[in-house]
Amino acid sequence: MENRLIRGVALNDSIRLFGVDCTKLVEDSRKQHDLWPTSCAALGRIEAVGCMMASMLKDEKEKISININGGGPIGTCMVVASGNGDVKGFVGDNQIYLKYNDTNKLAVGIAVGKDGYLTVIRDTNLRENFSSKVRLISGEIGDDFSYYFNISEQTPSVVSVGVLVDPDYSVRCAGGLIIQLLPDASEEIISKVESVAANMRPITSMLSDGMTIDEILMSLFDDVRILDSKEVRWHCDCSRERFMAGISTLSEEDIKEMIEEDNGCEIKCEYCNKLYKFSKEDLESILEFKRSCLR
């Protein structure tokens, strides 16, 4: 099953549309981290937004990093999405399974919490990254990103994301939509978008009914024009070399301590759980390299 993201415009090109079916991507994340339903729904929703935000980048080498911590039991949620379609992420607690008593829906808002911030960092391969932060308003993810776009980017946006988890914990479907008003949109356009948003079915309902992401966007407006389409996928780009570079940024005292007390170190990638082992000799080489750079 291919994860598919599309971009388009509608209402005489006065709004931008982004849509993604990332069911396999979120299922791959679930398997990678052995996620329970609410943890899976939280991470999957953020990954869906990450996919769409990364498609707004100008270059495939650029990246979006999303950090959310609302003080809830799930802890920190991190997602990194690249312009080339690669996405990875993790949550602090993989084993959260909470439901709302009144609706029996997965309680993502309670798991995430709203006593904290949503932070977005754009890595554009320039000397300095662009970072922006807003307070969480619900912890449900969709509403929080709508608020983010409105406040941080001054772009009125509707954000709908969802993950439907089956009784066996597997992901039945996952996806997202973003509708953004372009500058100088008329009051009539704004009213049409508000009407569509108010009457729009949940993205998971449409996907579980068998609708493709193209069909979903086409069902919202009469004049949708698809601009492009791309595949998105779960992928971790960690490497031994990257962690070696990370170790080299530590102080000499910290590296010496790992050499003398532990005879090496082990580092686990939080995104894919791969374990990297560095021997005493490895650390001594890193320390020598660090010293040579300071001479």
Summary of the model, kept short:
The protein has 295 residues and is α+β, with helices and mostly antiparallel strands. It is built from 10 helices and 13 strands. Helix 8 crosses helix 10 (280-294) and helix 9 runs antiparallel to helix 10.
Describe the overall structure.
The chain is α+β, with helices and mostly antiparallel strands and 295 residues long. It is 36% helix and 29% strand. It is built from 10 helices and 13 strands. The chain has a 6-stranded mixed beta sheet with strand order 7-6-3-4-5-11, with helices on one face. Strand 1 and strand 2 form a beta hairpin. Helix 1 (23-33) crosses helix 2. The longest helix is centred in the first third of the chain and has 18 residues, at 37-54. The termini are far apart. The model has no long low-confidence stretch (mean pLDDT 94).
Strand content: 25-35%
Number of helices: 10
Global geometry: globular
Strand order of the largest sheet: 7-6-3-4-5-11
User: Overall mean pLDDT score?
Assistant: 94
The end-to-end distance, rounded to whole angstroms, is 54 Å
Number of strands: 13
Unreliable runs: none
| Main sheet summary | 6 strands, mixed
Radius of gyration: 21 Å
Structural class: alpha+beta
Order of helices and strands: EEHHEEEHEEHEEHHHEEHHEEH
Helix content: 25-40%
